Amino acid sequence: MPCNPIILRYWRRTHSLLPIQNVKQATLAQTSRTNREREGLGLRCAALDFCGYFLHFRLFFWKKIHCVTKQNILIDFFKFKSGGSSHLVMDVPHHGYRATAKSRARTAPPAGGNPLLFEDTSSPSPPMARHGYYMSGAAGAGAGGGGDGGTLFRDPVASAAMMYGSSLAFQGKDMVNKEISRFVSMNKLKYFFAVDTKYVLKKLLLLLFPYAHQDWEVRYHRDTPLTPRHDVNAPDLYIPSMAFLTYILLTGMALGMQRRFSPEVLGLCASTALVWVIIEVVALMLGLYVLSVHSDLSTFDLLAFSGYKYVGMIFAMLGGLMFGRNGYFLSLAWASCALMYFIVRSLRMKILSSLSSDSMGPGASARPQLRLYITMATATFQPIIIYWLTSHLVR
Amino acid sequence: MAFTLYSLIQAAILCVNAVAVLHEERFLSKVGWGADQGIGGFGDEPGIKSQLLNLVRSVRTVMRVPLIIVNSVCIVLLLLFG
């Protein structure tokens, strides 16, 4: 019997020294390979295992050293140590590549764009980090291929192909961006996603308990509205989209709890909710046009205000899932009242306050009422939709 | 009521078709919704009726050719795939 624990493990297994559970196992053990065959197999497995241990220890030490010393010294050290073992060399430049990209992203200066949008109020803001990663991704590949010579890929053709591929990806990305920006203004969209944690928390609290908030005006900064990061009253599209996804997941969970789940239902539920949002936004835009309300509400603003009802939906569903039917109706009532108050207060600023800028014509007396009606109609539509989309999920 | 995105597209096409078949002379003028009857007062505030008539007229003008294309595509698809 071997003394080495690794080889011992395999020796034991092949020689069936494990306790035999039943007669079936005993007969199987006897009719399978001969002991000699098993021994050979076991030794081969043990050899592989030992190699694995050896490499694992080397990787382990490599990782420890990696945190302390610089990149190039490390690569030289391991080139010397391993003497060209391909497995490790493949690993090292991979780590080096990633680390270079990260360090470059952190030190990259903000490349143009609105400084107000990309001010860093939390850990690296997503647009900048992504930009930096893409730029340094291509640069890192180039530097890796040029500087280390053979260690990135043994094959210069492969490294050239990789650089060509990354430049192709760049061009593809540019083309896609150009096409998209013909329909949707990216800057405007970026404004709606410039959020941070503090804003999200305050806004969620505001959506569920708006009664304590005093100041509902959207603050401006030299004619442009402030980003959501700096102003809690600004609409954003992050919360609605995340709430929409959470709603879909919760629907799946609720249906699963009632044993009515199937993957098609998820897709159906998602498209139903999306269609209702689209209908509401189109109806609102039509209403605002017909009543000739010249407010600064763009399509995205309306989309944002429509999407805030998902937060109320999630709240109602959670109440229903945790506390049954009564809990559902209670949280539905609470969420509806809060949401109605929120919508009325927010839209009143935008729709009703544009009265003062219009001249008083003969038909002006009908205006305030109609605008009030449209605000109230929007507000009352929310609880109806919340009830419609969630009642079948709570038994 | 389970909506799919396809049903949304269908509803949109049907609505736009409905607006496009309202003929100017034969129907709208008879009812009092003609193009000339809407532009009544020239104040800053066009009324609801004039806004609606404006909308109908612009939809009819803009969507005439795209609707031909979209309707043909729909007809072919429905004939092929039912």
UniProtKB/TrEMBL annotation, chain A:
Subcellular location: Endoplasmic reticulum membrane; Golgi apparatus membrane
Membrane topology, from the record: Multi-pass membrane protein
InterPro entries cross-referenced by the UniProt entry: Yif1_fam
Pfam families: YIF1 (PF03878)
Keywords noted in UniProt: Endoplasmic reticulum, Golgi apparatus, Membrane, Protein transport, Transmembrane, Transmembrane helix, Transport
Swiss-Prot/TrEMBL GO biological process terms: endoplasmic reticulum to Golgi vesicle-mediated transport; protein transport
Any one cellular-component term (Gene Ontology): Golgi membrane
Transmembrane segments: 237-256, 268-291, 311-344, 370-389
Major place of residence: endoplasmic reticulum
Family: Belongs to the YIF1 family.
Cited function: Has a role in transport between endoplasmic reticulum and Golgi.
Protein name, as recorded: Protein YIF1
From TrEMBL, chain B:
Function text: Regulator of endoplasmic reticulum secretion that acts as a key determinant of brain size. Required for secretion of extracellular matrix proteins. Required for correct brain development by depositing sufficient extracellular matrix proteins for tissue integrity and the proliferation of neural progenitors. Acts as a regulator of the unfolded protein response (UPR).
Principal cellular location given in the protein's record: membrane
Pfam families, A to Z: Yos1
Any one Gene Ontology cellular component term annotated for this protein: Golgi membrane
Subcellular localization: Membrane
Secretion signal span: 1-18
Residue ranges of the TM segments: 62-81
Name of this chain's protein: Immediate early response 3-interacting protein 1
One annotated GO biological process: protein transport
Biological source species: Aldrovandia affinis
